[in-house]
Amino acid sequence: MLAPLQTGAARFSSYLLSRARKVLGSHLFSPCGVPEFCSISTRKLAAHGFGASMAAMVSFPPQRYHYFLVLDFEATCDKPQIHPQEIIEFPILKLNGRTMEIESTFHMYVQPVVHPQLTPFCTELTGIIQAMVDGQPSLQQVLERVDEWMAKEGLLDPNVKSIFVTCGDWDLKVMLPGQCQYLGLPVADYFKQWINLKKIISDEDLVSHLRVQLPGWEYGESRYYIDPRWRFSSRSCEEGNRELKAYSFAMGCWPKNGLLDMNKGLSLQHIGRPHSGIDDCKNIANIMKTLAYRGFIFKQTSKPF
């Protein structure tokens, strides 16, 4: 009895995929033959009775990387700012590029040495108290453990493509190389290329293709959506000024408040505490998963240095 049941299940699965393709029709491909995976296709599937999992399976494109390594440092800080800043929280989430699910976590606190005493401002901002960093490994020791973790997870295999993902360029362009230079430590090559989620979110193609919803811009009953092409189609000075301001906001300054605005723009619930390194990583991973299911393919944003 088992074999006929398995055959029937396989036949039913094949039927569903066939029906899904018929439902989507030409929506899956653009005139140039490039897949157009978008939320319109998902909505069309839902309208024909397909659940979210089926829609996601059909619309989820292959990524360029096997794994995304989501990273978000927290560092010593004060007002006015102290120098040099030192990393005190070092979290990494290993995100599967095919499923966009978290497969492994690296998370350590780091003992600061130049300014070993955390300021009240730093504790209030990050939630990290003195006891959490006292007696913890130095940055050099943590970097050694990162390398061990990378090897254990198969991320140093030349056949495995992985890339770090950050919210901004500060973590890997400023903070890590700056502290390593100060301490006379080498920076591993895998830290020298990354994806800046802020640049991804503010990308013109993403805004027009996925219709990212901006927080705080309401006109009448509906939200104001950005389409970069609108800047050429103004019918009045008032409309033109509004479009130009919105476009500039999207392409230049947005997301104004980082992860909080990204989550709001994508209608996602914020996870945990803002400025907790590990919680920020979870939010970045959730945003990436959301964008991937809407059809976005992530690519490197950093330039070689």
Automatic annotation (TrEMBL):
This is ERI1 exoribonuclease 3 isoform X4. It comes from Heterocephalus glaber. One of its GO terms (molecular function) is nucleic acid binding. The gene is Eri3. Signal peptide: none annotated. Keywords: Exonuclease, Hydrolase, Nuclease. Residues 67-297 form the Exonuclease domain.
